[in-house]
Structure formats: structure tokens, C-alpha cells
Design goal:
Elements (H helix, E strand, L loop, with lengths): L1 E6 L2 H11 L6 E6 L9 E2 L7 H10 L4 E4 L2 H5 L2 H6 L5 E2 L7 H4 L1 H10 L7 E4 L2 H9 L5 E5 L8 E4 L2 H12 L9 E5 L4 E10 L3 E9 L2 E3 L3 E4 L4 E4 L6 H21 L5 E11 L2 E8 L6 H5 L7 H9 L14 E9 L10 E2 L12 E5 L2 E4 L2 E4 L3 E9 L2 H15 L4 E2 L12
Parallel strand pairs: 1-2, 1-4, 2-3, 4-5
Antiparallel strand pairs: 6-9, 7-8, 7-9, 10-11, 10-15, 11-14, 12-13, 14-17, 15-16, 17-22, 17-23, 18-21, 19-22, 20-21
Bound molecules: adenosine monophosphate and glycine (GLY).
The site of adenosine monophosphate has 13 residues, from strand 16.
Length: 421
């Protein structure tokens, strides 16, 4: 089978790697891919938001299956678009992708089906927002109602911060946000919960904890994710039952009441408060770096799973996992998540030593004349699986120390809550 993966991050390298193990695969293309995918697939430099060009490429090259990694093309309807040309695509439809594309869509669904989430209000202009904020008990959370690449969320400690958030959102800092949401601040611990769905059957696809803040001790600015570990320290059978019964099932039931079938990965970002789950947000894709953390522990052929979902036969598919823990540390360019230099060489690349339990997934990298250049904020993902988190992290740190990349940094405390050191 010939397959194309859309995206260029660590998540897409991990998906490409996982798929490359399948006996069913003859050739993989990555659109556009990175220096890591280039080793196992052919990178095709196309804009992931130009659906016409992607369609032409897929048809010309007789590609039989497409896997979409990031949210942007999903929310913009790439699945519906390609399916119209009889191309098989793995991922949710445009309507289903509103779960991530519109926070208000999801909040209204939560309200209608009594899905536990932070109390909220929707505001369409600055004055209304300001009037509400003046009487609100802080901290509160203010969010732009559009895809803002993980940004566009403000945790406001006082009225002044809230006013600033409202001003920035309505002045277009995050693109064209016509509405904003003001939410109650939930105090608890976050967890990423994943399922796969074929429209009627759902299966658990792992849990993880992601470290979103840039600095050690979970301090500083929000990022796409500085590292993650699997499984989440919070998961237990009682909590899992609540997540499925109170959050996932009512969501999918609510979508099907509107004739929307959900097919693909579904990622629930949850706040766990005293073993009770609250939905913070949905993502219609795998998490990044959670995907890099979870896929190495998957035993089952990923292509079999994807095909089962597309053919609506997930019920017949048995998922098997290695009995291991997994940890991922993200190496970033100095300056991330703000400004950073691009096209900086990562020297010493060959000093990294990997055994069969270690994985190195590229994110913002490209290859030029045999050199690996960093072109993004998040550059490399070091993953190790082991029976204990400490060993996994020590192996990763050894490699990061050998690499000793002066233009980058990483958090040394990933998974500190499960490592007693
Ligand atoms: P989001 O993009 O909605 O996931 O929000 C980004 C981050 O802001 C989340 O990962 C949480 O850390 C935090 N956050 C969002 N909403 C809330 C909330 N209602 N209460 C507390 N923290 C929140
Ligand atoms: N790691 C957070 C995300 O993928 O959105």
C-alpha cells in the first residue's frame, strides 16, 4: 500500500515510524515531513492547507490512504474534500472537527448533554466582556474562540490582566476571533486522555501527562508541550469509567444526534479534581508530544487500526500494548516559545546512541547537505520506554548530554511527579 502522512512535527514522525513497521506498507510520503521522516519516507514539499495541490499529488501517485496529523487541515475540512475524490482519509470530518475548531461549539455540547466542564459565558464584544469581568471573582480564564495553535488562552489573576486579554483577542492577536469565552478557573491536575472512534465503537488509546509550561516546576509560558509521560499518574478504573460515561460517550452521542460521525483520534484535555474529570478542551488529533510517547508502546499494527476505523470495523480490532512506561523529553530552540533562530545546525548528531527501547523523533528540522538544521521551536523528541520512569529519563538525559546542543534547551524535570528524586 502507498500511504501519505500530512504534517511535519514530532507527532507525524512518530506516526510515520510506526506505520513504516507495517508489512502492509510499500511506500510512505510525508507532506511536507522533516529531516527525520526523510530517513524512512519521501518528503513532498506541499502546503498542507492547499487541498487542491495535495489532491493532485495523491491522485497522480496513486496513493491509497492518507493520515492527517495536525488540526488545521482537519478543521478546514480536508477529510470531506479528499473523500469527495474517493481518496481514503484517516481523520474526522469538518463538522466533527468543530470539537477542536470552535470552543463555543464544544461548550454548548457540554451544556446540552451535561458534560462536566468549567462554567462559562460567551461574549461577542469588548463592552459586554468588561462589564462581566468587573464583577467576576478571579482567577478566570479567557479564551479566543478559534484555533490559535495552543495560544489564545489567558489565565487572568486580576481585572487588569482580564482587560488586556479581552483587548488583545478582539484586536485580532489570534486571527479572526469573533467571540470569546470566559471560564471559571479549575484547580486540579491535567491529563490527556485518548480514544479512537470509528463512528460507533470507541477504544482507549492511552493516557499521558504533558508538561505544557516552558520552565521547570511547570512555570512560565505555555508551549505546545515540553515533554510527556505514559501512562498518566492519575488514571484508575473508577476515573476511566467516569471519563467514558460522563464525557466521551455523551459527546459522541451528541454529535450523532446531529448526524455527525466521529472517525479518528480524539484527544480529551481533562482537569482532574478529586478523581472527577472535567473537560478543558477537545483536540481532533493525537497530542504532540503525547503521540511520540504513546506510539512506541503500541504493539498492534497501526495500519490495521487505521483501516479498521475507516472501514467502521474497530469492534473487531484488538489493541495490544507493551507493558512499559514511556517518557518523552522535547529539545527546543533557545528562545522558544517566543522568538528563536532558524536554520541552526545541530552538530554532534551522530553522538546519539539508541537501542531498541529508545526513539528519536524529529520535529522542526530539515536536512541540508547532510547537516541537520533546526527550523522550529520544538526540534527533537527523545523517547525511551522502560519498566520505570527514572531509567527512561536517565537514558534520555545521557543522550541529550552527549548531543550537547548549545543553541537549544530542554526541561530536566519531565515526569517529576512520578520520579522521586
Ligand atoms: P486550552 O487551549 O483550552 O487547552 O488551554 C490551555 C491551557 O490553559 C490548558 O492546558 C490548561 O492548563 C489551562 N486552562 C484552560 N482552561 C482552564 C480552566 N477552565 N481552568 C484552569 N486551567 C485552564
Ligand atoms: N500536547 C498538547 C497538544 O498536542 O495539544
Amino acid at each position: 500500500m502507498k500511504i501519505a502522512i500530512i504534517g511535519s512535527g514530532g507527532r507525524e514522525h512518530a506516526i510515520t515510524y510506526s506505520i513504516s513497521k507495517s508489512k502492509k506498507i510499500k511506500k510512505i510520503y510525508c507532506i511536507p515531513g522533516n529531516a527525520g521522516t526523510e530517513e524512512i519516507a519521501e518528503n513532498i514539499n506541499l502546503d498542507i492547507n492547499n487541498f487542491e495541490n495535495i489532491r493532485d499529488f495523491l491522485i497522480e501517485n496513486k496513493i491509497e490512504l492518507v493520515v492527517v496529523g495536525p488540526e488545521d487541515p482537519l478543521v478546514n475540512g480536508i477529510v470531506d474534500y479528499l473523500e469527495n475524490f474517493n481518496i481514503k482519509v484517516f481523520g474526522p470530518s469538518k463538522k466533527a472537527s468543530q470539537l477542536e475548531g470552535s470552543k463555543i461549539f464544544t461548550k454548548n455540547l457540554c451544556k446540552k448533554y451535561k458534560i462536566p466542564t468549567a462554567n462559562f459565558g460567551v461574549f461577542t464584544n469588548s463592552q459586554e466582556s468588561i462589564d462581566f469581568i468587573k464583577n467576576a471573582k478571579h482567577p478566570i480564564v479567557i479564551k479566543a474562540d478559534n484555533l490559535a495553535a495552543g495560544k489564545g488562552v489567558y489565565i487572568c489573576e486580576d481585572i487588569q490582566q482580564s482587560f488586556k486579554a479581552v483587548e488583545e483577542i478582539f484586536n485580532g492577536k489570534f486571527g479572526d476571533a469573533k467571540n470569546l469565552l470566559i471560564e471559571e478557573f479549575l484547580r486540579g491536575e491535567e491529563m490527556s486522555y485518548f480514544v479512537i472512534s470509528d463512528g460507533s465503537t470507541i477504544k482507549n488509546f492511552g493516557t499521558a501527562q504533558d508538561h505544557k509550561r516552558v520552565n521547570e516546576g511547570d512555570k512560565g509560558k505555555n508551549t505546545g508541550g515540553m515533554g510527556a509521560y505514559y501512562p498518566s499518574r492519575l488514571i484508575n478504573s473508577d476515573l476511566e469509567k467516569k471519563i467514558i460515561d460522563k464525557i466521551i460517550k455523551p459527546t459522541l452521542k451528541g454529535l450523532s444526534a446531529d448526524n455527525i460521525k466521529y472517525k479518528g483520534f480524539l484527544y480529551a484535555g481533562l482537569m482532574i479534581v478529586d478523581n472527577e474529570p472535567y473537560l478543558i478542551e477537545y483536540n481532533v488529533r493525537m497530542g504532540d508530544p503525547e503521540c511520540q510517547t504513546i506510539l512506541p508502546v503500541l504493539k498492534t499494527d497501526l495500519i490495521e487500526i487505521i483501516e479498521a476505523i475507516i472501514n467502521e470495523k474497530l469492534n473487531d480490532c484488538i489493541l495490544q500494548w507493551h507493558d512499559s512506561k514511556s517518557l518523552c523529553v522535547v529539545l527546543c530552540s533557545n528562545g522558544y516559545p517566543d522568538k528563536y533562530k532558524k536554520n541552526v545546525e545541530i552538530q554532534n548528531f551522530n553522538s546519539v546512541v539508541l537501542d531498541e527501547k529508545d526513539f528519536l523523533f524529529h520535529a522542526g528540522t530539515r536536512k541540508k547537505d547532510k547537516k541537520i538544521l533546526a527550523i522550529g521551536g520544538r526540534v527533537l523528541n527523545f523517547v525511551s520506554i522502560s519498566s520505570n520512569f527514572n531509567d527512561a529519563r536517565e537514558k534520555i538525559h545521557k543522550n541529550l548530554e552527549k548531543l550537547n546542543w548549545k543553541a537549544g534547551f530542554y526541561r530536566k524535570d519531565i515526569a517529576y511527579k512520578v520520579i522521586n528524586k
